[in-house]
Structures are given as C-alpha cells and as structure tokens.
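Re: [help] complex structure
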Amino acid sequence: MNSANEYIALSLPSNPMYLGLLRNMVGEAADIYGFSEEEKQGLMLAVNEGCANIIRHCYQMDSKKKIDVTIRILPDRMEVVLRDYGEFQNAEEFPVKPCADLEPGGLGLTIMKSVMDRVEYRPAGQEGTLLTMVKYRAARQA
Amino acid sequence: MKLSNRTVSGVPVVDIEGDVDMYTSPGLREQLARFTSKQQKRIVVNLEGVEFMDSSGIATLVQAYKEAQPFNGEVCLASPAGNVLRVLKLSNLTSLFPVFDSVDEAVNS
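Output below.
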C-alpha cells in the first residue's frame, strides 16, 4: 500500500459520458492507496453524485462546460475536490431528502453525505463552487 | 450498459449489464416506459449484471414505479447486490420495491 501526500488532478468536460471514467480513476486511486472495498465503492459513488449534480443543477446539462477534479491522498484520508464554473449554490443548505418521497432529484446529496465523512460546499473565488468531500480510512490492524 | 428483454412465464424481464448512471439511465427509462405504457401488471428488472447504480438509476426505477401505480402494476427487482443494494438501502427503496434473489423467484412470486 502507498501512503503519501500526493494528488491527482484532471479536468473533465461536463458530459455524463465521462462519469464512468471518473469513477474508474477514483476506484483505482482507492485501490492503490489501500482503501477497503466498501470505502472505495463509497468514494466512487460520492464523486459520481457530486459530478452529476454539477452537470444537472449547475450547468443545466450543458456538456460544453468544465469540471476540475483534484484527488488528494493523505495518510489517513482521501479528499476529493470538484470545482465548477457556474453560479455558487450552497447545496448544503438544501434539505436532505428522506429518499422515499418518490420525487427524483436531491437524492445525490443525501447519498454523498451518507457515504462520505465530510461534504462541504464553498464559493470558488468570484466564480463557481468548490465541493470538497473527505473519506477517512478505517483503522487497520498491522 | 446493455439492455435486453425476455419473457419468463409471461412476465417481461429487463436484463441490465453494466453501469446505470446519468449517462445510461435514459435508455433504461425508455425501456421500462415501453412496458408501463402497455400496462404490464408485473415487470422484472434483473440487476444481476449491474455493478454500479447512482441516483439517476434510482430515479429511473422510481419513475417506472410511479407509472405503474395507476393500473396497480408492480416493478420487481431481481438479484441486486453490492453497490446496487447499498444504494437501494440508502434510498430507503428496498421497502418500496419487491426485491428477490433471482429472476425466477420474482416471476413466480
């Protein structure tokens, strides 16, 4: 297992066809840095939902925009930052849906909060939003 | 994602292979709508070949459920596992959809 303070960065077009590529990259990173299978699946799901939320709500399904992804790996956690270039919306203030209300939409944030240890939205300077998601690695026996 | 249809004991079964996400879920939505528009009393969605499902996939299943409600139709889920089962549980949807271990069980229930 690698343990380092390293980061991976890339920019994606805001096209849903790239969600699979992003998931695979996050999954590979989780494997390389020794996250458990459950942690890996949670990371892949949360990053997918964060990105899909940007495409749907921030960019209104416009596939010509840009999403910057930074994955930072620390000894005890993985931090994933998604940056968009739309209008700032603090999704954290949206009500967390109980899911079974049968209305599509809003479920992504609920899922992100369920599988990650921290989910935080803040403005990215004068334009856009930074979505930071953190997953701590469970303590392992030596 | 690949979709295929078959009929088992008169019940339509939709087999899914691959990931169900924002990119692929419109195809599944269209497929399920074909059956609900024909007022099929029972539809079985076979999730055995699905390794990943996100909230778009969940919304697609919920949409089919809602479309089936007016004629008391039923959307059954067969063989959800791993990540798919986790997302269904996170969404509190295992109580909404009849969930079965296999297609045969779903068809014959």
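Chain B is about 40% helix and 25% strand.
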